[in-house]
Specification:
Strand content: 35-45%
Oligomer: single chain
Radius of gyration: 14 Å
Low-confidence stretches: none
Order of helices and strands: EEEHEEEEEEEH
Number of strands: 10
Structural class: mainly beta
Helix content: under 10%
Strand order of the largest sheet: 8-9-4-3-10
């Protein structure tokens, strides 16, 4: 897979990051309680492809239920530009709408049945592997 560097961040600019992934994004639209309330669309990347460039001190985290997912957001503007998903605690879910323009070629949307999370995870064949680290990142 060809990787490109995407940059992005929150609304006020306090939080900035870069992420290496395909220019063709596979974005999940989850219908669990929090994703529905936040309209949380996200694509998943391994931790080694994500770098927080600035704003660590400006992040705060919300957790609930199993406390595996870490819903991080900017203390100033409230935008969640990335988070640690319950489905992939070894990676990040990145909000495509928080990327700077110019590096996304296409977006493929997939609905995920988060209302029945355990059942949906069992049935999904590829989501767990999306956060597995690769040693050869072509930059």
């Amino acid at each position: 897979m060809d990787l490109v560097k995407h940059t992005g961040g929150c609304h006020c600019g306090a939080v900035r990051f870069e992420v290496w992934t395909s220019p063709d994004l596979h974005v999940f639209e989850c219908n669990c309680s929090i994703c529905t309330k936040k309209q949380n669309l996200h694509f998943i990347v391994p931790k080694n492809r994500f770098t927080l460039l600035q704003g660590l001190d400006n992040l705060t985290t919300y957790t609930f239920n199993t406390h595996i997912a870490k819903h991080t957001f900017c203390k100033t503007c409230g935008v969640q530009s990335f988070y640690t998903p319950r489905s992939n605690p070894d990676g990040y879910g990145v909000a495509p709408h928080c990327l700077d323009p110019g590096t996304v070629r296409s977006v493929n949307m997939e609905k995920f049945g988060g209302e029945n999370w355990e059942e949906s995870m069992q049935a999904h064949k590829t989501i767990r592997g999306m956060s597995k680290q690769e040693t050869d990142i072509q930059q």
